């Protein structure tokens, strides 16, 4: 049974050990107290008995401190504090707080000690534990004496005494009396102090406790000394030394010795005085109680000075100041280390907390993101579906509006009515392109939008825009005008539809957000070169303006200036988003300058826009000029540093079976030629890195490449240079050139076949039959089923002529082009292209024209097949 007990200690056994440790501590038996507490700690740890661990640790700390090991004491006390805080039981918590406070107080770290004392006091009050409260008042007062808050100390010491007397806590009453005595001495109220000390001594003696008696003797000695009753004083002080010796309290001995020395000094016994002073220093050093040594030096110095021994006083003071400085530095270092440790612990705690919160937040945020992503994807799909169906629903009635107003314009002769109709047509076209562009927003965002570069009368577009908005502006009594800078080019290569749309958005906005004043469109050309320019279109209004903080926002998708009246202005917040993206695609940008209540200026800046000859803008005359030829399949390399010039060449040669490659300078061109020699090179003259002349020289010097024909185009050559260039290169075109000029130049070099004309004239039939002369029997057999197909499609053509449904026309055109490719029959392909173009442009007249020519096409094919059969052997 006993064995079992020693093997498995109970909580009760541990509590008893703790109790014994405490008792021994108060009895001044510090080593015993320590070993009992250590035993208790070991057992409590095996049992995971937290409360026992905390209690035991507290008494270990007390005992270690009493034994002059403050650092160890502090380490122990600090170790148990977090455990006590975690446990939350106020009783062990208060005890361990007290143990910590004790170490701080006795090592001179008063601020820390005071903080903990207050915490302890609060817990005791909350617990309503009268005895603990009595002690906590005592402890606060004790600390306040050291902090020189003597009035507060006296007040708290009295509170402690009052409670102790009320509840018969005699030992505490003794302590409180002693403390009041000590405070009164500090306040130089020696007579009163003596009374309290006497009372304290009496109680202590009654309770046969001797721990504090040396202190009371010292206090009483001091009071006697102040009365100049040196005999009595010395008697108390020597008794104190003896008692401290019994208690093995070196610090107490040192303090008692120095006080006795002082008394001897006062009594004129210098030899005894010096001996006791030396004893005191030695004792204090033995226990390494540096602050005690310090006060010994101070007291010695005072004492020597009071008896006129200034040399000794000075020496003591010197030692005092040296030690003081050392201690101060050490104290600072210690305080710093303590603070650093606290800081580290706190930082770690906060970091852990932040990480914990972050993880919680992150996973919540991730969930939210996931949900938002799913919702966005669903919404995006719904949006696409909606846009697709809206596309169809809007385009169908728009076909009718545009198609029939086109037809109507041929029959109406009345001038104002014709004007109105024109506005309907133009607005309809713009509206349709706008709808298409909104539908294409997803294309832009996906990077799938392709620009259509073509020669365009850009000034005409500007004028048209102003015309479209003129009625609206008039209704608002806003002056609307357009202005062109000197030398503004009449024709440039640009995507007209996109430019139109962008201008339409900016002018529309300007009128919408302007109540009075003007809206001006200013078209300027900057950096106008031989073949390219920077174009700037400014839309300047005197409207409501845009607040500074919103300016960057308005280009976002579905973004409007916040707080703007939806009913007044309407809109979707899409226009600027699309416009900006389109301008960026055209190698430019939109900028805005605005001031609230003054107005806004939106500027479209398009860089490196290629110039085109005016002649290309006269389609009717020029279409007659364009030779209707089909070049034999070939490869052409186009070399120009302006991209649109290269595109222009390609667009002029659309419908030809030509494989194009491009290069932006002579050097890249040469690399491309080496890699894959073309049939023909068309090159600009002036280019960075390597110009046209250098390229030509390189090629002419290379026997493998010298035979490749080259056409050079340039804008700047003088008349006399033109001939030289033609000789040097072999071919020459003056920039800007139109389609006819390009094709005619190519005809000088490349093999070609003449084609039937699109009007189905007899001449065309003749040409066609001539070209079909070469049809082999194989080709004839191949084309026979095509004739059948075309015949069966005649009803489709007739149907579309009646309904004028653009979608059907587009479908029909692409179906026929597919047939043309699979039967290798170019005339049908060309016809399909024409229908497709007219359908895209909503050109009803053109569509009707194409459809009526379908009949002609069928007949032509039939004739050539028959003629072929007749001439066949
Ligand atoms: P919407 O006009 O359909 O709302 P936009 O993208 O074209 O969409 O314009 C976005 C917003 O930018 C407008 O709603 C308006 O708040 C602001 N804004 C555009 N142009 C002007 C202007 N000329 N003056 C004042 N505010 C403008």
Q: What does the model show?
A:
- The strands form 4 sheets. Strands 2-4-5-7-6 form a 5-stranded mixed beta sheet. It has a 5-stranded parallel beta sheet with strand order 10-9-11-12-13. A two-stranded antiparallel ribbon has the order 1-3.
- Helix 4 packs antiparallel against helix 5 (70-87) and helix 15 runs antiparallel to helix 16 (290-306).
- 69% of the residues lie in helices and 10% in strands.
- Residues 1-6, 619-624 and 758-773 have low confidence and may be disordered.
- With 873 residues, the protein is of the alpha/beta class.
- Strand 11 (680-684), helix 26 and strand 12 (710-714) form a beta-alpha-beta unit.
- It is rod-shaped.
- The structure holds adenosine-5'-diphosphate.
- Adenosine-5'-diphosphate binds next to helix 20 and helix 22.
- Residues 505, 509-510, 513, 541, 543-546, 554, 560-561, 564, 571-577, 600 line the site of adenosine-5'-diphosphate (ADP).
Helicity range of the residues? 55-70%
The end-to-end span amounts to: 133 Å
Which stretches of 5+ consecutive residues score pLDDT under 50? 1-6, 619-624, 758-773
User: What is the arithmetic mean of pLDDT?
Assistant: 82
How many strands, which pairing sense, and closed or not: the largest β-sheet? Answer: 5 strands, mixed
Question: Per DSSP, what share of the residues sits in E-state strands of 2 or more residues?
Answer: 5-15%
The backbone outline, from C-alpha atoms, is rod-shaped
Small molecules (ligands, ions, cofactors) in the structure: adenosine-5'-diphosphate
- Treating each run of at least 4 consecutive H or I residues as one helix, how many helices? 34
Whole-angstrom Rg: 54 Å
Widest sheet: strand ordering: 2-4-5-7-6
Derived from helix and strand composition plus strand pairing, the structural class reads alpha/beta
The beta-strand count equals 14
EC number: 2.7.13.3
TPR repeats: 134-167, 174-207
Catalytic activity: ATP + protein L-histidine = ADP + protein N-phospho-L-histidine
Domain Histidine kinase: 389-610
């Amino acid at each position: 049974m006993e064995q079992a007990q020693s093997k498995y200690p109970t909580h009760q056994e541990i509590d008893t050990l703790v109790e014994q440790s405490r008792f021994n501590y108060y009895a001044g038996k510090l080593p015993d107290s320590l070993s009992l507490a250590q035993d208790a700690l070991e057992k409590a740890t095996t049992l995971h008995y937290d409360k026992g661990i905390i209690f035991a640790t507290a008494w270990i700390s007390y005992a270690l401190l009493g034994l002059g090991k403050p650092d160890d004491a502090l380490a122990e006390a600090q170790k148990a504090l977090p455990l006590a805080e975690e446990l939350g039981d106020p009783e062990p918590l208060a005890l361990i707080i007290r143990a910590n406070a004790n170490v701080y107080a006795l090592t001179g770290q008063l601020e820390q000690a005071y903080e903990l004392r207050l915490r302890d006091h609060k817990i005791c009050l909350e617990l309503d534990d009268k005895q603990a409260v009595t002690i906590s008042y005592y402890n606060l007062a004790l600390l306040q004496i050291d902090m020189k808050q003597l009035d507060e100390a006296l007040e708290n010491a009295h509170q402690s005494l009052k409670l102790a007397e009320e509840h018969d806590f005699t030992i505490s009453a003794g302590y409180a009396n002693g403390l009041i005595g000590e405070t009164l001495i500090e306040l130089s109220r020696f007579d009163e102090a003596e009374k309290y000390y006497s009372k304290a001594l009496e109680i202590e003696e009654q309770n046969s406790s001797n721990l504090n008696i040396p202190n009371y003797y010292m206090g009483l000695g001091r009071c006697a000394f102040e009365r100049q009753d040196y005999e009595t004083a010395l008697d108390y002080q020597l008794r104190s030394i003896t008692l401290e010796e019994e208690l093995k309290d070196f610090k107490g001995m040192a303090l008692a010795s120095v006080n006795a020395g002082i008394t001897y000094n006062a009594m004129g016994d210098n030899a005894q005085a010096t001996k006791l002073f030396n004893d005191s220093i030695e004792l204090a050093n033995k226990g390494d109680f540096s602050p005690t040594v310090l006060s010994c030096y101070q007291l010695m110095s005072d004492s020597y000075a009071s008896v006129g021994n200034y040399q000794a006083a000075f020496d003591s003071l010197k030692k005092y100041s040296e030690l003081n400085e050392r201690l101060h530095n050490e104290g600072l270092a210690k305080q710093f280390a303590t603070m650093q440790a606290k800081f580290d612990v706190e930082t770690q705690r906060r970091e852990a907390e932040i990480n914990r919160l972050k993880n919680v937040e992150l996973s919540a945020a991730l969930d939210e993101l996931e949900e938002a992503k799913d919702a966005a994807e669903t919404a995006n799909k719904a949006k696409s579906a909606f846009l697709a169906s809206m596309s169809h629903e809007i385009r169908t009635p728009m076909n009718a509006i545009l198609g029939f107003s086109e037809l109507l314009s041929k029959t109406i002769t009345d001038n104002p009515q014709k004007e109105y109709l024109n506005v309907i047509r133009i607005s309809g076209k713009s509206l349709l392109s706008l709808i298409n562009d909104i539908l294409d927003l997803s294309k832009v965002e996906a990077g799938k939008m392709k620009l259509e570069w073509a020669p365009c009368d850009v000034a005409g577009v500007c004028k048209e825009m102003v015309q479209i908005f003129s009625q609206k502006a008039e209704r608002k009594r806003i002056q609307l005008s357009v202005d062109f800078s000197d030398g503004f080019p009449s024709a440039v290569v640009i995507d007209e539809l996109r430019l139109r749309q962008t201008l339409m958005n900016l002018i529309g906005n300007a009128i919408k957000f302007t109540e009075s004043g003007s809206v001006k469109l200013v078209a300027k050309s900057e950096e106008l070169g031989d073949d390219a320019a920077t174009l700037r279109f400014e839309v300047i209004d005197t409207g409501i303006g845009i607040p500074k903080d919103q300016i960057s926002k308005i280009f976002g998708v579905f973004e409007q200036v916040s707080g703007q009246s939806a009913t007044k202005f309407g809109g979707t917040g899409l226009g600027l988003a699309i416009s900006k993206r389109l301008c960026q695609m055209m190698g430019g940008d939109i900028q805005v300058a605005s001031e609230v209540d003054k107005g806004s200026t939106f500027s479209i800046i398009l860089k490196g826009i290629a110039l085109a000859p005016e002649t290309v803008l006269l389609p009717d005359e020029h279409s007659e000029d364009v030779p209707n030829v089909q070049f034999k399949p070939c490869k052409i390399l186009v070399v120009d540093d302006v991209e649109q010039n290269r595109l222009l060449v390609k667009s002029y040669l659309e419908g030809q079976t030509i494989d194009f490659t491009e290069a932006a300078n002579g050097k890249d061109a040469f690399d491309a030629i080496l890699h894959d020699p073309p049939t023909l090179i068309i090159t600009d003259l002036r280019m960075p890195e390597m110009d046209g002349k250098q390229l030509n020289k390189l090629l002419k010097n290379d026997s493998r490449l010298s035979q490749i024909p080259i056409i050079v185009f340039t804008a700047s050559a003088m008349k006399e240079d033109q001939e030289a260039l033609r000789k040097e290169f072999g071919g020459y075109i003056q920039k800007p050139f139109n389609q006819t000029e390009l094709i005619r130049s190519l005809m000088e070099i490349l093999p070609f076949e003449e084609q039937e004309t699109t009007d189905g004239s007899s001449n065309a039939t003749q040409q066609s039959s001539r070209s079909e002369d070469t049809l082999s029997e194989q080709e004839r057999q191949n084309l026979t089923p095509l004739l059948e197909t075309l015949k069966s499609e005649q009803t489709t053509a007739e149907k579309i002529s009646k309904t004028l449904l653009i979608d059907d026309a587009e479908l029909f055109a692409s179906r026929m082009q597919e047939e043309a490719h699979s039967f290798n029959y170019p005339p049908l392909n060309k016809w399909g292209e024409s229908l497709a173009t007219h359908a895209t442009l909503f050109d009803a007249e053109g569509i009707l024209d194409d459809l009526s020519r379908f009949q002609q096409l069928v007949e032509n094919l039939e004739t050539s097949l028959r003629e072929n059969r007749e001439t066949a052997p």
